[in-house]
Design a protein that fits this description.
alpha/beta, 18% strand, single chain, 6 helices, globular
């Protein structure tokens, strides 16, 4: 069976003491600031296999843990169309400090978790997120999105197994929706660093329209991950 690493980059909406973003609290606690429901789903998966869960402690507006350290959006000046005054005019030094304090430790911990798991065998790295049911007036009808890059080998087989398991459990699951599978994510960066024969980096998106039945969603995801772990080539 594949070894499992579970991460949740947008798990929280807290802001560190003393850091002023300059936007109302109700905006920070909306989807602008985090991924509602993602932490609960990731926690259910990690608990099922008794593996540690690496979860972000602060809002994505502080530092976006699902962007590469050199991405201009890692400290966003505008998020989902909302200006973030506290992130403007930081300058190069201020941005570097923000990345050093909040982004670098998380990525180092995630890399260490994958390295440790690879010492035992091939790894499924599941990065859990959530998405709004509509965006800009455009409906997003899926219950789940499975974001990946390779259609062949370990990653392709795991992705197909997840899509099959989610669909068989009654959810509508789509490949590389509502976002593309090769954008600047934690897992896409890691794909360049780890061998494709032993590392499958999958970003799982959960629709926020199902947050009122989160227990069912967690059960469905756990069952789909179990199927993927069993069916993937060893």
């Amino acid at each position: 069976m594949l070894k499992l690493v579970v991460t949740c980059e947008h798990a929280a909406h807290e802001v560190p003491d003393g850091l002023e973003l300059g936007i109302p609290p109700e905006v920070v606690t909306s989807h602008v600031g985090w991924d509602p429901g993602a932490h609960e789903v990731a926690e259910a998966v990690a608990r099922r296999w008794s593996v540690p869960l690496l979860a972000g402690r602060y809002s994505r507006l502080v530092a976006d843990l699902n962007r590469g350290p050199n991405n201009p959006e890692v400290v966003p000046e505008v998020a989902f169309g909302v200006p973030v005054p506290g992130n403007r005019n930081l300058g190069t030094k201020g941005r570097e400090t923000r990345v050093r304090d909040y982004h670098t430790p998380y990525w180092r911990a995630a890399r260490d978790a994958v390295d440790s798991a690879l010492e035992i065998g091939p790894v499924l790295h599941l990065s859990v997120h959530s998405f709004s049911a509509d965006f800009g007036g455009e409906a997003r009808p899926w219950d789940f999105g499975v974001l990946h890059e390779r259609d062949t080998g370990l990653e392709g087989e795991v992705a197909r197994a997840l899509l099959h398991g989610l669909g068989r459990g009654g959810g509508s699951a789509a490949r590389n929706q509502p976002y593309g599978g090769v954008e600047d994510y934690l897992v896409t960066n890691f794909r360049r660093d780890f061998a494709p024969e032993t590392y499958a980096g999958i970003l799982l998106e959960v629709s926020q329209r199902n947050l009122d039945r989160l227990t069912d969603v967690k059960d469905l995801v756990v069952a789909a991950v179990a199927s993927a772990l069993r069916r993937a080539p060893q």
